[in-house]
């Protein structure tokens, strides 16, 4: 197959380092991995295989399609969105556990004869999960539960809501048959031992995202997009460049045109905001990001030529600040056109 003119360099050692770091930060608790949304855009199978090799045992996906994709790996999978009627055949096949979220799902699982499951309890986020009141009233009595979990709404912020959510989950200890309890996502791990329970569930930080500045020094960048120069040109002073002529050359300007655009997840938010690296120089994106192309000011890189590969700046906290996109959006938006190359 023809090599793609776009590639993601994916760093196995950095991914495994990040998991080991989060596992160490999780103390006595086991450390799992959220690999939903195709492993946050990196490729769920490749990510899960490497994390399993590092010692990870608990993997979380969103739905049964995603679980089926990973089933051949033989890992312990949990499906965060629970079970619909149409999921029951897959759910009863036993290659993953549903995370039951509603009284209807609990009933469906009981009637269908399902065995071990996980359960999500809502402790204040008001997204998915049974209410604490329902659990206290016995909604889960008799159910074979592996993990009773909840999810933090604001783990990356120092707000009092974290403590309230933590206390609400802790209050259910012993109220069900659950073998384990779980609360913390990536940022929640940094909230300390009170938040670790028996199992943590990081996603973002595994992939090099930094949910809290104090975690930045300990995590390594995993994803490095690269694109190629399609054309180099000189834009005369006063000429415009790109769609809607939003950029105008203040002087004669050397420009390189690269084959990456918003169809590759490099969204228009990077117009006049993104940058690339080439042989130690940082070249700014100028003008509007197109579907398949961007332009950079190459004035300080006289040696940059048609066909050269360049690195798209993709340190997640920095590029999130530059673009206004979340680190999660930067990862999960990475499109299908990249060759994903694991080192
Ligand atoms: C996505 C998700 C996680 C992982 O969250 P990060 O912020 O990416 O670490 C953990 N638990 C649940 C329920 C999730 O949906």
From TrEMBL:
Cofactor(s), names only, from the UniProt record: pyridoxal 5'-phosphate
Reactions catalysed according to its record: L-alanine = D-alanine
Pfam family, any one: Ala_racemase_N
Location of the Alanine racemase C-terminal domain: 222-343
Gene that this sequence comes from: alr
Top-rank EC class of the record's enzyme: isomerase
PROSITE patterns recorded: ALANINE_RACEMASE
E.C. number: 5.1.1.1
Protein's name according to its UniProt entry: alanine racemase
